[in-house]
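Today's session is about reading a structure prediction critically. Students often jump straight to the picture, but the first step is always the sequence itself: look for stretches that repeat, for charged clusters, for runs of hydrophobic residues. Only then move on to the predicted structure, which in these notes is written as discrete structure tokens rather than atom positions. Here is the chain we will use throughout the hour.
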Amino acid sequence: MAAWPSGVGRVILDQTDSTNLEAHRRAAEAPVWVLARRQTAGKGRRGRGWEQSDGNFAASMICAPGGAPRDWPNHSFAAALALDDTLAELTGRRELCTLKWPNDVLLRGRKLAGILLESVESHLVIGIGVNLIAHPPAERLEEGALAPTNLMSETGVTVTAEAFLDTLAPGLHHWQDRLRRDGFAPVRTAWLDRAAGLGTTITARLPGRSLSGNFSGLAEDGALILDTAQGREVLPAAEVHFS
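Below is the predicted structure for this chain, in token form.
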């Protein structure tokens, strides 16, 4: 296990409303990780809630990433790579997980983890939730949602949230440093090497319409490239569903 990154704070809470909100409140301490054993108002993408069972992982890191704010979404890809590295180290099996655009980690094709980015002024919050020992039942999911899973039931691996953070934090530091030093290109290449559904037919759902086509790759800014019967679409945001 790599050492905890120098200069990065670590706050462990029994309970908070949302680790993303708590991280925002600690902007003056950035960079700092905030982990909560329980959230009362966890946040997911597009305003959805994130259900956290006891023993699962919920943490957020706030930093001042520098550079142009238009490039900050690329930190989501860095976080996904760090999550994949962490899971590979804990399970000893790199092949188990894949990365679903734009910000999920899948274990054997089921949703294991999600990433939520939020920015305010000069700071970026990277929120991460991982189903370590439990996952929501199917009846609580919205229609069409990817089936969830958890690390313990799929692999037999048990790990505390604190131990998971100790492995994840150095990994994220590594990929963020790579992003700052070398730009998005190597991060993009590494992400595509682990991408779920690449080269297959997928459906991208946008407000008011859906598009189906071949998932052909990522644009230089991280947008999804979809080759449809009507031509190529480059999508900066969408809900992706596999056929």
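Discussion point for the tutorial: The helical segments are 19-25, 74-91, 151-155, 161-182, 184-193.
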